[in-house]
Structures are given as structure tokens and as C-alpha cells.
Amino acid sequence: MRIQQFQITLVDKTRKLLPRKLKDFEPRSFFTIVKLSYKNPRIHYEVWIRGKEEHLIEVGLHFEADKETNDALYAYFDSRAFDVHAALGPRVEIERWTNSWSRVHEVVPYETLDEELVDAIAKKLAKMISVLQPMLDEFE
After folding, report:
1. Residue 67 and residue 115 in contact, taking contact as beta carbons nearer than 8 Å
2. Is the pTM of the predicted complex or chain greater than 0.85?
3. Which residues constitute the domain of residue 8?
4. Residue 123 domain-assigned (yes or no)
5. CATH number of the domain where residue 39 is located
6. In total, how many domains does the chain have?
7. Between vectors from CA 34 to CA 33 and to CA 35, what angle results, nearest 5°?
8. Can you give the pLDDT of all 140 residues of the chain as single tens digits?
9. Residue 16: how many CB atoms within 10 A of its CB?
């Protein structure tokens, strides 16, 4: 499956897996990244296919707003780490990614972009959104 088809299928399958109140996200894709946002596009869910040599897919919630907002979101989710890990598993990391950006994410290895993988990533993303978006709404 080509990356663009993977992204289109992923967005469609993820939307179908979400409860009604979370289906209304705005998708954007470019190159090997697809972003899903609700209110602020700088705070978004992201699936990044890191292909050629790594064969990894990152699934996460990214905080790419201003530093103050990102730091506050990082601190909030870090304080909820027990809840995040209980719901999403121990492989999920809450981290400062750069000096000003943070994320809650998991990296998934893969062999090929195929239907089985897109199903697995859609389920993982839908669960992540279902768990993290209510926390994000509570923060706001």
C-alpha cells in the first residue's frame, strides 16, 4: 500500500472507530505525516510513517503551540501519566520532544504498509484519541 492510500484509509477507519462526539476532527496530510485536530491545529494527533530505513510509525498527541502552552500541557499530561499508561499501555511516552514542543506518543515497528497494519494503527489512534481528548478538553 502506498503512503497516501495508507493515510486516507487510516483517517476513514479511525473516524469509524471513534464515538460520535469525537468523529468531527480535521485531517491534514503531507508527505509521510497525517495530522488530526479538533480546535487548535497546533495541538493535534499525528501519525508519522518513518519508512525508508527505520520502518517505524509514530502515533501520538503533539503539542506544537507556543512554549508556554506546550509546557503546561506537558506538565498536565505528565501528572496524569498513571492514567495514560493504565489506559494506553507502558510503551506510551510523555516527553519533551524539542525545546518548545512536547508529545504523548508510541512508536510502532512495521514491516509493510498493508491492510492489517492500517487496521492496527487506526485502532491504536482511535483509542489514544478516546483516552486523551477528554483529558485535553478537561485541561482547556
Report:
1. no
2. yes
3. 3-117
4. no
5. 3.30.1460
6. 1
7. 120
8. 899 999 999 999 999 999 999 999 999 999 999 999 999 999 999 999 997 778 999 999 999 999 999 999 999 999 999 999 999 999 999 999 888 899 999 999 999 999 999 999 999 999 999 999 999 999 97
9. 10
**Residues making up the chain, counted from first to last:** 140
**Per residue, what are the HEC states of 31-95?**
CCEEEEECCCCCEEEEEEEECCCCCEEEEEEEECCCHHHHHHHHHHHHHCHHHHHHHHCCCCEEE
Q: Is residue 133 part of a domain?
A: no
Q: What are phi and psi of 21, to 5 degrees?
A: -70, -15
Give residues with Cβ within 8 angstroms of 105, minimum separation 6.
Answer: 46, 58, 59, 60, 61, 62, 92, 93, 95
- Is 124 domain-assigned? no
Q: Which three cell numbers stand for residue 132?
A: 486523551
